[in-house]
Design a protein that fits this description.
By secondary structure, the protein is mainly β. The chain has one domain: AttH-like fold, CATH 2.40.370. It contains 2 helices and 23 strands. The strands form 2 sheets. Strands 1, 2, 3, 4, 5, 6, 7, 8, 9, 10, 11, 12 and 13 form a 13-stranded antiparallel sheet that branches. Strands 14, 15, 16, 17, 18, 19, 20, 21, 22 and 23 form a 10-stranded antiparallel sheet that branches. It is globular and about 60 Å long.
């Protein structure tokens, strides 16, 4: 499939959206006979393991890995347009392979389900704009290509076109048309892309990042279109057993430092809320890379914010220690809670943050907090 799709008329677009809505509704009706696998078929619908030593190759591994249970492409960053205040943005496409009858030839069978989230943060507005889409991969309305990055749900898309990445999001309250140009090489997480998420090696993902992407494009909001530039971070992960059964949720940060360094750190939390596992990777401005063991990482909450909508309390300001490196994180704004119960059934905090060292800004990035209300499930 070509990266660029032909433009559709308004009538055609409305027809496709009606069909998309029908396909999306069917995707969340597990009781339907067509989707209920027999015991034998369910046994056949097994997922491959994430194993140490697999070499990630590019650009092939930027595409979909449909045999694995869960996969996501996650882009976050900061957008600027003088003299306006900076804004944060988040775009995520998820692909999941449910346990369905692989032998069912019906196009309505949910062999693959696609979910997309998008958000725009603005301290000036003080309110997070958020939207979501969900559909099964059917009728070319939604899908994720193998061997190349091309994932979409109707008019939401994230693709690679030549040397750049492109995202187009037509949300209810805003629209994003952004281009991302790499300025640094791939950052492999964990052991050359094998990222442990718990004490057992089976709990792991294949994981790489692209820090310091140069951003350009357009943001439409309140009937106004503005040209923007900025910096972004891309994560791509796929797994069949991401979370240990004893884990409740995770805290994650991806930080682009002003000097060109990059830091990814996460910790998994147990059902009691205690630290359960942790990992991280730091690449300095000279491209020297170091990974960190769980005992080298500390997340210390400094300040919490309680959502007036869900009543969930999130630690939105942090002190993070990674080996000898210590930073403080302050949010662009406190209210960056995403309610995605209409798609993945979760409510979590995900937002733009400023990294400080000795009270001086040294970088910007994103913070994700899951499992603080209801336990996170993948």
């Amino acid at each position: 499939m070509k990266a660029k799709r032909p433009k559709r008329s308004g009538v055609e677009s409305r027809k496709r959206r009606k069909l998309l809505a029908a396909v999306s509704l069917l995707a969340w009706q597990p009781g339907r006979a067509a989707d209920a696998p027999s015991d034998a078929a369910a046994a056949e619908a097994r997922y491959p393991d994430v194993v140490r030593g697999r070499r990630l190759t590019f650009p092939q591994d930027e595409g979909s890995h449909p045999s694995f249970r869960t996969e996501w492409w996650y882009v976050t960053g900061w957008l600027e347009r003088a003299p306006d205040p900076a804004r944060g943005f988040q775009i995520t496409f998820f692909r999941t392979r449910p346990r369905t009858d692989e032998r069912n030839p019906s196009a309505f069978t949910a062999h693959q389900i696609l979910v997309a989230h998008a958000a725009l943060s603005s301290a000036k507005r003080g309110k997070l704009l958020h939207d979501q889409r969900v559909a099964r991969a059917a009728f070319e309305l939604a899908g994720a290509r193998e061997q190349t990055l091309n994932v979409w749900i109707d008019d939401w898309s994230f693709i690679r076109s030549g040397a750049i990445y492109q995202a187009r999001i037509a949300a209810r309250d805003f629209a994003l048309s952004l281009r991302f140009t790499p300025s640094q090489p791939v950052l492999f997480q964990g052991d050359d892309g094998f990222s442990r998420k718990g004490p057992h090696e089976q709990s792991a993902s294949y994981y790489y990042s692209m820090p310091h992407l140069r951003v350009s494009g357009e943001v439409a909001e309140s009937h106004t279109k503005t040209q923007v530039t900025g910096s972004a971070w891309l994560d791509h992960e796929w797994s069949s057993s991401y979370m240990d059964e004893r884990a409740r949720g995770w805290d994650w940060i991806g930080i682009n430092f002003d000097d060109g360094a990059a830091l990814m750190v996460f910790r998994m939390r147990s059902k009691s809320g205690a630290p359960f596992w942790a990992g991280g990777t730091y690449r300095n401005a000279s491209q020297g890379r170091r990974t960190f063991a769980p005992h080298e990482i500390e997340f210390t909450p400094i300040r919490a914010w309680r959502s007036p909508r869900t009543g969930t309390e999130y630690p939105v300001a942090w002190r993070i220690r990674v080996g000898a490196l210590e930073i403080t994180l302050e949010p662009l704004m406190d209210d960056q809670e995403s309610d995605t119960r209409a798609s993945v059934g979760a409510v979590y905090w995900e937002g733009a943050v400023i990294a400080l060292r000795e009270k001086k800004p040294v970088g910007r990035g994103y913070l994700e907090l899951t499992g603080y209300g209801v336990a996170m499930r993948l």
